[in-house]
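Hey,
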Amino acid sequence: MAAEQAKVDPMHQFTIEPMLGSANWEIAGYNIAFTNSALWMLITTVVLFLFVAGGMKRELVPGRWQMTVETFTGFIDSMLEANIGKEGRKYVPYVFSLFMFILFANLLGLLPLGVIGLHPFTFTSHFTITGALAILSFSIVLIVGFWKHGFHFFSLFVPHGTPLPMIPAIAAIEFISFMIRPFSLGLRLFVAMMAGHVLLEVLSSFVIDGTNAGALWGGVVGLPSFLLMIGICALELLVSGIQAYVFALLTSLYINDAENLH
């Protein structure tokens, strides 16, 4: 009998599905279904809250948990001070929450829960989520910029020393570059997380198909694919941290523009 072929759809893992019979829940004509994406956002929020709460004991001799939280907080504080200056300290709560939320979301999406029948959902692999986070950061930049500088904030689009005849062209280019920031910020995280998960899913299909095809193909295709999956998983852990850091770093750089009009 022919070996059963693996039916692996690399894109199925990104499907947003309603849960708890909420598919038809509506308010004022808008669907408010509680989805798997919303569930994992809630789980990430709870895990982040517990993580921070566990590190706020303020013990005289800090334990490992408290030291871990203080290390992350100090890391974000140092990053903001380096990019914004002393004014950056007031943004620590927001940037810290943003960084940790993305980091935990990325890491929780990599948990091997499939072995017990559960399937983690990486909501940062959806542009709607990463785009919303980017728009939130961009909104803070606009609010801070106009609150602190008023209409002088528009001088951000005309670099100091620009020749007078070049001002219209330079201002237009700078404005377009500025408005693209939230799109590129959200797109970068979304693409990085989606690509890694698609690759892992494709490799898993090679492992299953190779194993089903017999010992020969299992050794030639399945085993190398499995070993490559282990390497990709390790890389994905690194990417999860790097993407959270890049998102937080670019947010701090954009806030610096609003604070200091560089």
